[in-house]
């Protein structure tokens, strides 16, 4: 999966008028002419991976279960276009999104179809997806999304040659991790490559640390609008752990100038200048494109370590559980929309995802992973997500845009040493509402 898919656009709140709706008419790639207006209108983020969704639409139409048309909407401004459409009488019937939190405003406004009765009535359909991922498609106690792409957990990547040269193993505990920081700094190797120019890369550390120290309930409270969640001791402990890492030189001295989009952090890892990098699973694909030999023979991966006295489960995962299909409450043909959602659970759909290098989150996908470009990496991801008791969505995707932007600013100040941990917590509690 590309990094583009993995991060929700946070700064694209541009003013769009009625003209945006007219422009979207040109986005369709399906049938036109007489009868086309009756086709299910399906929006997807336009990228190389949308061929999987087009194939699903083609099979659906060929099977005679209904008619559907796929609209490939350019990713630049996708959310703004969706917001305009959802506020009009021309909302898409089915649309791509990032899970429950990203569509909460629509669910709260009654603009989404509650899929809970559908999943309850069809146990086989419900059991087709990994529970921790299906849960990420919920708003409150209602299911409003069905997984439709590949999972993207955040992993700890490593340079195996650097580890072998130092005679050390990947960390299983926080003490292990701190010991490795000392080992690698003494050897002149940056312990962790960090794209500090991208606040979301720094955020991954806090997401995992809060989850490990306090469990998923801490951020769940925040996501559901309870600001008291930021006062949980786990948040302060996480910020203190980050400050300690900074004091130990865990990220080197110039990480704030390193950009992930420009490949800086990945190059530090592949060239052995850094030993590890905490990053989403798309890092593998990026390494494969930039340095195929390293990706095949020198790149390792493991889970985020356990922390002392943590209430969180060490098997819990953070990142991007999946992308989802949601259905507009004003869908023109509810039965056809539900029938289309079920294509995401079909074997052919999972096979297409694997062929595109993605790791599906259907419960029977494990049997397909040997067909992946790197079966070992695909199985590791799948097993990690399958066994995860919880899968917490990235905070910047889960929070409303205004909160997410202010939060990322606070994160960068913490990593830059401009605020102390207690001040960081104060900044989070003062985030704008809504």
Question: CATH superfamily membership of the largest domain, which one?
Answer: Periplasmic binding protein-like II
Number of domains: 2
- Helix-and-strand structural type: alpha/beta
- CATH fold descriptor of the largest domain: D-Maltodextrin-Binding Protein, domain 2
Global morphology: globular
CATH level-two architecture of the largest domain = 3-Layer(aba) Sandwich
Q: Bin the strand percentage.
A: 5-15%
- How many runs of DSSP E, i.e. beta strands? 13
| Number of helical elements | 22
CATH class of the largest domain: Alpha Beta
The major β-sheet equals: 6 strands, mixed
Helix content range of the residues, please?
40-55%
Report, as a whole number of angstroms, the end-to-end distance. 30 Å
Q: Over the alpha carbons, how many angstroms does the gyration radius reach?
A: 22 Å
- Can you tell me the residue ranges where pLDDT is under 50 for at least 5 consecutive residues? 1-37
Mean residue pLDDT = 89
Protein name: Extracellular solute-binding protein
Organism: Motilibacter deserti
Q: How would you describe the overall organization of this protein?
A:
There is one protein chain. This protein is of the alpha/beta class and about 425 residues long. It is built from 22 helices and 13 strands. The protein has 2 domains: about 220 residues, D-Maltodextrin-Binding Protein, domain 2 (3-Layer(aba) Sandwich); about 200 residues, Periplasmic binding protein-like II (D-Maltodextrin-Binding Protein, domain 2, 3-Layer(aba) Sandwich). About 45% of the residues lie in helices and about 15% in strands. The longest helix is centred in the middle third of the chain and has 16 residues. The two termini are about 30 Å apart.
């Amino acid at each position: 999966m590309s990094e583009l898919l993995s991060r929700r656009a946070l700064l694209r709140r541009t003013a769009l008028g009625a003209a945006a709706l007219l422009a979207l008419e040109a986005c369709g790639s399906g049938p036109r002419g007489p009868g086309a207006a009756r086709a299910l209108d399906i929006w997807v983020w336009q990228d190389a991976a949308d061929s999987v969704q087009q194939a699903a639409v083609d099979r659906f139409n060929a099977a005679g279960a209904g008619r559907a048309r796929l609209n490939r909407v350019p990713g630049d401004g996708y959310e703004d276009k969706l917001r305009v459409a959802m506020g009009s009488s021309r909302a898409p019937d089915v649309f791509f999104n990032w899970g429950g939190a990203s569509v909460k405003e629509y669910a709260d406004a009654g603009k989404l179809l509650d899929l809970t009765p559908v999943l309850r009535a069809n146990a086989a359909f419900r059991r087709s997806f990994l529970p921790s991922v299906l849960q990420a498609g919920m708003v409150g106690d209602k299911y409003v999304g069905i997984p439709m792409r590949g999972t993207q957990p955040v992993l700890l990547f490593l340079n195996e040659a650097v580890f072998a040269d130092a005679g050390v193993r990947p960390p299983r505990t926080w003490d292990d991790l701190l010991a490795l920081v000392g080992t690698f700094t003494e050897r002149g190797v940056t312990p962790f490559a960090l794209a500090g120019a991208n606040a979301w890369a720094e955020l991954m550390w806090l997401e995992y640390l809060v989850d490990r120290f306090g469990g998923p309930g801490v951020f769940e409270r925040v996501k559901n609008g309870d600001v008291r969640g930021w006062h949980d001791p786990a948040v302060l402990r996480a910020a203190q752990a980050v400050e300690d890492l900074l004091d130990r030189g865990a990220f080197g001295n110039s990480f704030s100038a390193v950009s992930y989009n420009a490949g800086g952090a990945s190059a530090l890892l592949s060239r052995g200048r850094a030993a590890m990098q905490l990053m989403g699973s798309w890092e593998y694909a990026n390494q494969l494109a930039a340095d195929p030999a390293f990706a095949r023979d020198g790149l390792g991966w493991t889970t985020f370590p356990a922390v002392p006295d943590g209430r969180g489960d060490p098997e819990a995962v953070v990142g991007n559980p999946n992308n989802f299909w949601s259905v507009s409450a004003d869908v023109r043909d509810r039965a056809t929309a539900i029938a289309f959602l079920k294509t995401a659970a079909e074997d052919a759909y999972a096979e297409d995802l694997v062929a595109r290098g993605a790791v599906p989150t259907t419960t029977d996908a494990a049997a397909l992973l040997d067909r992946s470009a790197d079966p070992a990496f695909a199985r590791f991801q799948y097993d990690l997500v399958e066994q995860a008791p919880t899968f917490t969505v990235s905070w910047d995707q889960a929070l409303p845009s205004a909160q997410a932007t202010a939060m990322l600013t606070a994160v960068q100040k913490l990593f830059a040493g401009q605020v102390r941990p207690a001040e960081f917590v104060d900044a989070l509690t003062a985030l704008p509402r809504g």
